[in-house]
Amino acid sequence: MSGKGRRLAPWIIGALLVGAAGGAAAVAITHPAVDTSAIDNASQNLWVTAEVVEKPVRGAYAISGQLSEPTLAAVSPLTGSGSTGDSASETAPTTAAQGKETGDEAGGAATGSLPQAVRRVVSATVLTAGESVHWGDCLGEVSGRPVFAFPPSAPLFRDLVFGSSGSDVAALQAVLAEAGLFDLAPTGQFGPVTLAAVKALYQRHGYDLPEPVAGRPGMLLGDTAIVPVDGAKVVSTAPLGAEITAEQPLLTVETAPARVMFRADVLQAEAFAVGAAVSVKFGSGDPLPSAVTAVSAFQAAASSNPAGYDVTVAVPEGVDVAAVAGLPVVVTEAAAAPTGPAVPLAALRRDDQGATYVLVPAAGGATAGPPSRVDVVVVGQDAGWAVIVENPALPVGGVVVVSGQ
Q1: What would the DSSP string read from start to end of 45-82?
Q2: Cα distance between residue 17 and residue 181, in whole Å
Q3: Which of 164, 270, 322, 368 is deepest in the core (most CB within 10 A)?
Q4: Neighbours of 122 (CB within 10 A)
């Protein structure tokens, strides 16, 4: 190479290097390097998580029921032949049981035997509608004679006199004890203490002691009436002068009030214990407050009724039973349903053995390690959430994996 060629070579090489650098810069500008960070991130597991929250275990129970009208009973004086059914040997108290009534005399003379009444007519009224009747109370006066309330368990069938004995005498003594007039255990023997108590019962209401049999005072069968329930409420009374017949009793009493009843299954029954607050809705009316008054023993399934418990609810105050008869009835529990920790239904998983579990992310998130498994027991559902049994590993406010793992 000539001297001139040697002098040009470095310039040529430099120009080529500059050109190469410029070309590289142009390529870099027009064709920048590909950013693979999104791809790299996409290749990692991304978790969608949700917080553990407090939710109702279930919605409030609302059960259809039926309105039952009040149970009524007619009350009138008992009637019979008037015989005492006593043998001649019963003319005086001679048994050991009667001996326990020592020290008491009947006191006072008995009245003569009761004149036979041709008609049973109300000659005086004592009670009014709305009052309560208790065994031993005077219910009214029929044909000049008082009428006293006795329980249906009393086997009354005859007049009872001094010296009588039997289960009917024991029932009389029990009623006298309820009235505060007899302080011994029932003996079934009509002795002097019983006679004094009977006399006090009559005198309490302004009547003399009758003599069902001449010379033998006691209690007339016609002076008694059966009242089915102690504390029954008087609904109506026969007016003064009315004749007592099957169609016109001395009293009509309410033995069971109007009530709402429904059948609760085994799970529902826990919310309707006696005393539990409820609301009752008749037709399209407003819900009214009430309470459970009774719960039956378990009832097996029969015809259209499922197995469960019959629940009785008081008719709310102020309700006109006749006005709402026939309307649909719905009873709803008033207490708030129990709550518990809840996770999204989408967070629940199930293994090959059928166990249900959730995944809890590591403290540092997806990059800190795999999530841990926590087994759960589901006790209810609420709008896309599963309510679970409390678990220390899943406190309210904790986090579970919904997807991404």
Answers
A1: ---EEEE-EEEESSPPPEEEEEEEPPEEEEE-------
A2: 134
A3: 164
A4: 20
Which residue bears the tokens 């109506």? 236
Q: What is the pTM of this model?
A: 0.61
Q: Which option is the CATH number for 62-70+257-333: 3.40.50.300, 1.10.10.10, 3.40.250.10, 2.40.30.170?
A: 2.40.30.170
Residues 6+ apart with CB under 8 A from 191: 93, 97, 98, 100, 101, 162
- The amino acid present at 281, given as its one-letter code, is K
Read off the tokens for 67.
């309105």
- Looking at domain 48-57+339-403, does it have CATH number 3.30.450.20? no
Determine the Cα–Cα distance for residues 342 and 354; give it in Å rounded to an integer. 20
CA distance 119 to 142: 9
- Gap between the Cα atoms of 93 and 101, Å rounded: 9
Q: How far apart, in whole angstroms, are the C-alpha atoms of residue 112 and residue 117?
A: 15
Domain spans in the chain, listed from the N-terminal domain onward: 48-57+339-403, 62-70+257-333, 71-255
Rounded distance between C-alpha atoms, residue 398 and residue 343, angstroms: 10
| 163 residue type, one letter | G
